[in-house]
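Notes continue from the previous slide.

Worked example: a multi-chain complex. Inputs as given:
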Amino acid sequence: MEKINQYQKWKDDYERVRGVSSEEDLKYNLSGIPVKPLYTAQDFQNQSLSYPGLYPYTRGIYPTMYRGRGWSRRQLIGLDTPERFNERQREMIKAGSNAVSLIFCNSFYRGYDADMVDPLLVGTCGTPINTIEDMEIAFDQIPIDQISIGLNDPIGFTGLAMLLVIAKRRGIPFSKITGTSNQSDFISHFVANHMFYRLSLDGSLKVLLDHIEYTNKHLPNWNPVSIVGQHMQQAGATPVQALAFTISSGITYIEETLKRGFPIDSFAPRFTFFYDISISLFEEIAKFRAGRRIWAKLLKERFGAVDQRSMRFKFHGQTSGAELTRQQPLNNIVRITVQAMAGILGGAQSLHTDSYDEALGTPIEEAARIAINTQNILAEESGIADVIDPLGGSYYVEKLTDDMEEKAWEYINKIDEMGGMMEAVRNGFVQKEIGESADKYQRAVDRKEKIIVGVNKYQIDESEDKRPPVTRVAPELVDNHLRRLEKYKKNRDQHRVEQALARLREATKDNSLNIFEETISAIEAGCTHGEVIKELRDQLGFGYPNIV
Amino acid sequence: MNRPIKILVTKIGLDGHDRGARVVASAFREAGMEVIYTSPWQRIEDVVSISLQEDVDIIAISSLAYDHLIIPKLMNALVEEELDDKKVIVGGIIPKEDEEILLTAGVAKIFHPGESLDSIIESVERLMENQKEMR
């Protein structure tokens, strides 16, 4: 009774000062969810919280979380030549790293070899890899059976095919190859990151399913599917939209794989997620907590999974680049710290922190070091990882988790009613939602309803140009690369190449053949990355995004 | 000449990150301009032919991942087709060293992250007024 009176007293006091009742004094987060000035026990009554590692995993997917194993500090690296990539990776392995992430160059992502694009664009933003020879240089002396390998390898999966040919040549069994096809989620490329979008929607689905089928049989430790919310949120989706759309994509990939006759627990444990983390701290934490709960419920109730591993919502997080500013760039270190905290408090399995200078150009070395040290400081100085789900039980965070979950389900159900995610992107629903959110966000910034320090408030005169000098790919490196490619093509067995491409063509039509298996054979026979993707495009359709 | 400003918003080269291009295009449209918006990966010859066919006043190129490096080639192609009266503006992540190259090649204005939509629209309108005065 006393408690109720005190609550009433607080409400009265609040209203007297603010001139509006606390129930009506609302703010709205990025996802459009109303936020009250105070949360109390009344907001959090029904939800049974359970425990870490137990269904529905709201508090984390493992019983020990960071006490057992910290999150992986996984920074993405792309360097301008396979040689330089190799050198850097070997240094990192010597320094104790047990994971490799290969970022390819833009022409690779678009599905081309270096000789198919303007030479000025060769090697931009990552490592040019066109042939098995390039890949062997990139992985020279790297123990591919002892490290986890993340490949930014969109539909076609030529990067993994090359890695497997290396494994064959070194006598390493495929079962020893561990890692993830980070960019297998073509739906996210269709709607948001078009650079990675190579084949038609239906063609992409066919290639992905063959990839899932092949890895399921031959690469038990490989994650063939990483569903990417990051692209969508960077393109403007709100956190709840990014969550819902990825889960809807996950439903599609699961249903299609089931149609091929695989039992749910045989492949679902290998599904992973990849999310953007904005600076909206509590909203992001709630997004990840809600995501775990939704995925677990779906897998158990809708798909009948029994294996706990199928129900675990494993995710990699990357701090939001779109929120970084060109103005007063050092402020970005603070933004990245808050974003990283949201990922950690949200229970991420691995994390990439951006460099503070990413709105200016490709990061300088010092900025890249600060980015990884941001994680090191959080992990080893702050105590943030000492307690599992430290915000669990917070009235606000629990209520927000419930609200985010509810709002995500609304989208998921709506997309189900439309006939699934493929239909929802074909008819432009998802693109329209994302586009509208992007417009709304920019207008809020312009109207100063959304504050960005240094951009629309607390600006200073920045006549001095702080952009660091760029490290441009040297023209002679591009020349070397083009010459190596030319020589490679001249020296290979042309007949074998043509036969392999014909077989790949056959696999796009004949369901008894597997496209990924034939891709491996094609690479082994000397086909280039660009030739394989061209063949797939010719047979399965070039991928054009649906611009809404 | 009171027709609305006609503007092509596009991306050339390899990258497909088009959030910026979309948001800017929709702001131009709301400001009363006539906007032609294309999918990414336009070839230089595509941009030239769209500009010619549609008789646009302004070509707006968005670049976030080094595709701006081929903008000087676009400028040359425009000159060759006698389309050098078209104003070319560029928005996105443009490193310091390249800014000078683009301006020398004839780019009228470069917009960086953090620029407000209103100020972009105002700059475009000012560019067109200057153009008129010069005629």
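Summary box: Chain B touches chain A through 33 residues (CB under 8 Å). The radius of gyration of chain B is 14 Å.
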